[in-house]
Specification:
- By secondary structure, the chain is an alpha/beta fold.
- It has two domains: 321 residues, FAD/NAD(P)-binding domain; 172 residues, Cholesterol Oxidase, domain 2 (2-Layer Sandwich).
- Helices cover 24% and strands 17% of the residues.
- The protein contains 14 helices and 18 strands.
Length: 564
């Protein structure tokens, strides 16, 4: 045992992405000494990001390979499968787990969509009786949304729409101009009574501190060495390091918490993945921000004084697993054929989107699904162009005729990506697979996952809505409409998994309180998406950041008062 080691650090933070990065930033700014453990390798976007290289300069033309599954230049090490680090799924379950093994985690390559959860989202059970309410309200987190948006930089507008809260004046950056396919979609959606407004994304359209404005010339999935697209490696982590209070250990896979005789966490055991050696670090408090799955895995693998795992007296660690409900509808639009070629790359992802617009109908019981969804819009000339499969089906012959047809159809495809809220159910959870270990000898996670009619009915409605938009544009659907059990994305595929350590106001039915503090271990905090009480259709990263800031403020207060 390592109980005799004196703590060198005040707090150990496990994970370096959105939650871990924000925790480190807030704690070090408050003067606390922080040690960060990152399971992946070091990453410096200043000199390791290939923003403007051509695929032809990469091995195999930049195509995916076993160790770079999203393409050679993509800013992720890891992915759906990692050699020597398996996970398992129960019979009949359909779940895929994405893990990014690098400093900064998924913040290096995420889509940067940054939508606030609204008042309904925090108290959804009170509206429809399903799932669980959060122990906090929108008003509790609104100031942290403001502070987070101001810190990281988010473009968008205050729309005044129901359950889509406005930001404080002067915070949002001006959004980039809509592109042609977005204007087409907006006109059709508006004709049908659907809103289509500028998206909110964590991409700078004006310079901030030492970060430059986006110059609209490369894929954000490659990482951003000018700091325009938010990632913890160009902002939160450098800022925390500049205080002199942050030490980072990479290639350090946390796998177990040690609990002292007083029931408090004394530190973290981790595996040095370069040597295979197991090591221990001690601290006054521990923050888990390793991602929804990894945080649950660490707790369940930590026996402490209970065979059910640490912080698990409620039996809820690993339960309530949810992911965004996803489906994709792709169509070809004749009105977009043969349009002039110009650079409409923009800020990689969408400039406009269709937020959920049927809260009134839902509250009146007029819909057969209980929670909302939104449409993310994709199209244009930016490679890889949407609809290449459909394009291939439209081409015939060879030579000049085929080239003429390729030019005609290129850029005429649009995709509507449904992103919706899932209701937690008893069939969705993660547990330890006692029969399987990874190459470091750590027991792996086993996932159980099943959608319900709530999700299938939502997908069907989204297909009907998308079809109405596409019909209004005079388009032809090429993919995505059919039996929702086949068109819905697999669990985990949208990479928005949440909920395995959900917060609540009852220690018997939740893992942490409103500040992410474990009911059972008062110096243990969770600051990632594991603590979500529900999964709104809004993308989770902005809420992870805001919650982590709020929770870290509370941790600072507790430590300053000598609580532990």
């Amino acid at each position: 045992m390592a109980s005799g080691i004196e703590p060198k650090h005040d707090v150990v933070v496990v994970g370096s992405g959105a939650g871990g990065g924000m925790a480190a930033y807030v704690l070090t700014k408050a003067g606390l000494k922080v040690l960060m453990l990152e399971a992946g390798g070091d990453y410096d976007p200043k000199n390791q990001t290939a923003m403007l290289q051509w695929n032809r300069q990469a091995p195999l033309g930049g195509t995916p390979t076993p160790d770079k599954k999203e393409g050679f230049y993509y800013a992720s090490h890891g992915g759906w499968e990692i050699e020597g680090e398996p996970y398992t799924t129960a019979k009949g379950s359909n779940f895929e787990w994405y893990r990014s093994r690098m400093l900064g985690g998924r913040t290096n390559h995420w889509g940067r969509n940054s939508f606030r959860m609204g008042p309904y989202d925090f108290k959804a059970k009170s509206r429809d009786g399903l799932g669980a309410d959060w122990p906090i309200s929108y008003d509790d987190i609104a100031p942290y949304y403001d502070k987070t948006e101001a810190l990281i930089g988010v473009y968008g507008v205050n729309s005044g729409l129901e359950n889509h809260p406005d930001s404080a004046p002067g915070i949002l950056h001006e959004p980039p101009a809509p592109r042609v396919h977005e204007l087409f979609t907006k006109a059709a959606a508006n004709d049908l009574g659907m809103p289509c407004i500028p998206a909110r994304r964590a991409i700078l359209t004006k310079p901030m501190d030492d970060r430059s404005a986006c110059y609209y010339a490369s894929s954000c999935g490659r990482g951003c060495n000018i700091g325009a697209a938010f990632q913890s490696t160009t902002s939160l982590l450098p800022w925390a390091r500049a205080t002199g209070n942050l030490e980072i250990l990479t290639d350090a896979m946390a796998h177990e918490l040690e609990i002292g005789e007083d029931g408090r966490a004394t530190g973290v055991w981790y595996t040095d993945t370069t040597s295979g050696e197991q090591k221990y670090v001690k601290a006054r408090a521990v923050v888990l921000a390793a991602s929804t799955g990894e945080t649950a895995r660490i707790l369940l693998n930590s026996q402490g004084r209970s065979p059910d795992g640490v912080a698990n007296s409620s039996g809820q660690v690993g339960r309530n697993l949810q992911d965004t409900v996803g489906s994709t509808i792709i169509a070809q639009i004749p009105g977009l054929e043969n349009r002039p070629r110009y650079n409409e790359d923009g800020a990689m992802g969408m400039h406009m989107y269709i937020p959920f617009w049927l809260y009134g109908e839902q509250a009146r019981g007029e819909l057969d699904f209980p929670r909302g969804y939104h449409f993310e819009l994709v199209g244009g000339f930016f490679p890889p162009a949407v609809g290449l499969t459909g394009l291939a089906g439209l081409l015939d012959g060879y030579g000049p005729k085929m080239k003429e047809e390729a030019r005609r159809y290129y850029g005429s495809f649009v995709a509507l990506l449904q992103r919706g809220e899932m209701i937690p159910n008893d069939n969705c959870y993660a547990e330890i697979d006692s029969d399987v270990k990874d190459k470091y000898g750590i027991p792996v996670l086993k996932f159980h996952y099943a959608h319900s009619d709530h999700e299938y009915n939502q997908v069907t409605h989204a297909q009907q809505s998308a079809k109405a938009i596409i019909d209004r544009m005079g388009g032809t659907i090429f993919m995505g409409v059919g039996n929702p059990k086949w068109t819905i994305d697999k669990g985990g595929k949208v990479i928005h998994e949440v909920g395995t350590c959900r917060m609540g106001d009852d220690r018997g039915t939740s893992v942490v309180n409103q500040f992410g503090q474990a009911w059972d271990v008062d110096n243990l905090f969770m600051m990632d998406a594991s603590i979500f009480s529900s999964k709104a259709h809004k993308n989770p990263t902005l809420t992870i950041l805001a919650l982590a800031w709020r929770n870290a403020d509370y941790l600072v207060e507790q430590m300053t008062q000598g609580a532990f």
